[in-house]
Design a protein that fits this description.
This protein is of the alpha/beta class and 424 residues long. Helices cover 47% and strands 16% of the residues.
Length: 424
């Protein structure tokens, strides 16, 4: 292991030096380094972390999506009555900025740069009993120091796709040693578990399921934020299109123009900056379609106009008032979260690029979702669902059952945290 750490630190030092040099002319890189300077200081200033004999749990998430998967686990541990302190670290600015005031954690910080010095200081001050890493984002010096300090390391939501970088000939040796640092690896499927065993020699991997099912289920229990919208759209067939990009929006608007008042359309773009919203407004205008912005509607919404949600944070709740859901990204790199609408028991539609989303492919296989490749396809699918409510209801029920049958991952991960070794 020492040889592995030696070579890792040579590589990391070279990368660190190169990015430091580039940060002189890159505000984004400069910010990357600046925001991470205070992580250890934040630990020192939070005196409550040092008090008592509480179980100290360090949860690391690359960004907000991974943190949301950890959230049900955090809540389950809290509800167990165990006296604990929970520190959450993020790699991405978006994750940190959106969740820095999260009440579920005792402290939220940026993950420090993965130097040996930073790792020693961070772990010495934090003194974690448990380290929970969600899905990926492995910083070897910090993991090594945590393990050396006596912490138990858990990886949850692990996936091993056939084209994974973990399996590339030049990288497999590296990742075999990374995964050896973990005491327990929870995978999302039996297929992933077999690959961890056979290809990465990670015998501590067991199948737990995908924490996202528990995440979307827990979040679906609260929809208060959109009750006024729900009232305005009562009695209408509503299509909520979430996490959309330009190609998705062109397809949706072309079909909406043909359907007229047969359906109410709510579009939630993946990005809500002014440039994106202005472009979407232009797309509506060029087709002669009336639209309005959520931020400018007050409490009155017209279901006959396209409603553009120009505010982040409640897409999952919006799906709860939909009759049908469209999930964006399928005409780009990959479809976004298809479980968020499926949990509400409604049909789900998305574009052709979904091969890096096992749950999207499973939804299609179980006849809970439909893939479309063009606006003509979308037109046919929507007309079928609008004109045949019984078919819409049947497909929706399958989607809801699909999610419910896969719940329980949270309990398994929480059990490992509270009773180490009991899941093996």
């Amino acid at each position: 292991m020492k040889a592995f750490l030696f070579f890792y630190n040579i590589g990391f030092s070279a990368l660190h030096a190169a990015t430091r040099f580039l940060s002189v002319s890159s505000p984004r890189l400069k910010s990357f380094f600046t925001v991470r300077k205070g992580s250890v200081q934040e630990l020192l200033q939070n005196t409550s972390l040092q008090a008592g004999n509480d179980l100290v749990i360090w949860v690391h998430a690359a960004s907000v999506g991974e943190f949301e998967q950890a959230r049900p686990v955090i809540n389950r541990v809290r509800s167990s009555g165990t006296s604990c302190k929970i520190v959450v670290s993020f790699q991405s600015p978006s994750g940190y900025n959106l969740r820095k005031s999260c009440s579920d954690a005792d402290l939220v910080v940026y993950h420090p740069l993965d130097t040996r010095k930073n790792a020693r200081e961070f772990i010495r001050h934090l003194q974690p009993d448990i380290v929970l890493v969600m899905r990926y984002d492995f910083w070897v010096n910090h993991l090594w120091q945590a393990r050396q300090s006596g912490a138990r390391l858990i990886l949850a939501g692990a996936v091993l796709q056939d084209n994974s970088i973990y399996l590339k000939p030049c990288m497999r040796w590296f990742y075999q040693r990374v995964f050896r640092l973990f005491d327990r690896i929870f995978t999302v499927s039996h297929h992933d578990t077999r690959k961890f065993h056979d290809l990465l020699d990670a015998g501590q991997a067991i199948t737990a399921g995908d924490p996202r099912y528990d995440q979307v289920w827990q979040r679906s229990r609260s929809t208060d934020v959109i009750e006024n919208l729900r009232h305005n759209y009562s009695g209408h067939t509503v299509l909520v299109a979430g996490s959309t990009w330009r190609e998705d929006e062109r397809c949706l608007l072309d079909v909406f123009k043909k359907l007229g008042n047969e359906i109410s359309l709510i579009i939630v773009p993946h990005e809500t900056d002014r440039k994106t919203i202005h472009h979407l407004e232009s797309e509506l205008s060029s087709r002669g379609i009336a639209g309005s912005l959520f931020s400018q509607c007050g409490e009155q919404y017209n279901p006959e106009e396209v409603l553009i949600i120009d505010k982040k944070g409640f897409l999952a709740e919006l799906y709860s008032m939909a009759s049908i859901a469209y999930v964006g990204g399928g005409f780009g790199i990959n479809v976004h979260n298809t479980l968020e609408p499926a949990v509400y028991g409604i049909p789900v539609i998305f574009g052709p690029n979904h091969h890096n989303s096992p749950e999207a492919e499973a939804l299609i296989e179980e006849e809970c979702a439909t893939e479309i490749r063009s606006s003509a396809d979308l037109n046919v699918v929507l007309r079928n669902l609008i004109e045949h409510p019984d078919k819409r209801e049947s497909q929706g029920k399958k989607a809801g059952s699909f999610v419910r049958e896969r719940l329980g991952t949270t309990e398994l991960i929480a059990t490992e945290i509270l009773s180490p070794g009991s899941t093996g």
